[in-house]
Amino acid sequence: MKIIKDSVHDHIEIDGVARDLLDTPAVQRLRGISQLGTVSLVYPSANHTRFEHSLGVYHLACEALEGFGVEGRQAERVRAAALLHDVGHGPFSHNLEDLTYRRTGRYHDDVHALLASGQVGDVLCDHDLDPNAVADLVAGEGRFGQVVSGELDVDRMDYLVRDAHHTGVPYGTIDHGRLVRELTFVDDELVLGEGNVQTAESLLVARALMNPTVYNHSVARISKAILRRASERLLESGAVDAATLQRMDDHDLIVTLRSHEATTEFSRRLDERDLYKRAVWAEIDDVPGGIIEADHDSIREFEREIADAAELDEAHVVLDVPDRPSMTESTSRVVVNGEIRRLGHQSPLVDALRAAQYSQWRLGVYSPADVRERVGRAAVDVLGLDIDGSLVSETRDGLYATLDQFLE
Predict the structure, then answer these.
(1) Residue-wise pLDDT tens digits, 317-350
(2) What CDD domains does the database record attribute to this sequence (predicted)?
């Protein structure tokens, strides 16, 4: 057995298959992948890694299994899946996942190929565990896959608390101990037991508060967009392929971006925190539906049109269109009066939090500070935005301004 001191869960005991998996290259690689990507440019202490998070998920999975009374090989499969659930992540975590998926057809939770060979596959087979069965659990399949990846998974319980701890914000605090204790199965569905509507609501509230404050902070979004654009240029130049990029860690990617002419300016901006500024910051009701639903190629074409209208190189324009607001946690299931009910149908908080998400949604157009006005004017025309109140004037007081005020 190995005991590791953790900043969130105190002492974590690692034993069995997890102990042997711990020092495999696939797991140790996670030390070089930041949990929150570029969020450290907003919160300097947010330097925790996927390795720490994986240990936390393993710890909570062990507690859940103890509560279920599950032992033996099934328990070992779940423990292995919990520790390995993030080994498919590329550099900077989710920041580049859509970019690499378009070229490989593989998201981070598709780890069948990774677990089937190499040291991880050897360790699993040595413990008489089928790598494909473990990979299925990572993907959320089957009864116990819900524990690793689902609406009430231990992954979510760890990252909310861990991200809040390392950023220093108080909003991600949840009673993960109670959440784990109250998990149960009803007809193979993972649910929270009777009397836990408020416990489930705490997950909703924590995520709803962490989204605008941490995960979708405007600076985090701008830096993520610059990183994504730089990495796309890297792939387009043929310097690396998407499969190779997926297996890099943060340090590998930074060095590669610095080393190629097509990406050096973007990498300099990230290194020096000389980020683009908001030329447009538009609410969802100001944006035509066709823009919101646009695919990647369409967004790139909009960027080129904006750049042409502003008489600038396309590298000076980044269009950032988030997905429509969603709340997967609202599908969590809770036992109420002996019946399984979805939280979205039971809790009056859900509609209020959905409204808050809707009001927080923003389309962003980013550019270097010295051309922000030109890019803002061009973007309004090209995208057909109803822009009143949506362009940002970064005044001394940090207030928003109307379009007329911005362009004075």
Answers:
(1) 999 999 998 888 788 999 999 999 999 889 999 9
(2) HDc (cd00077)
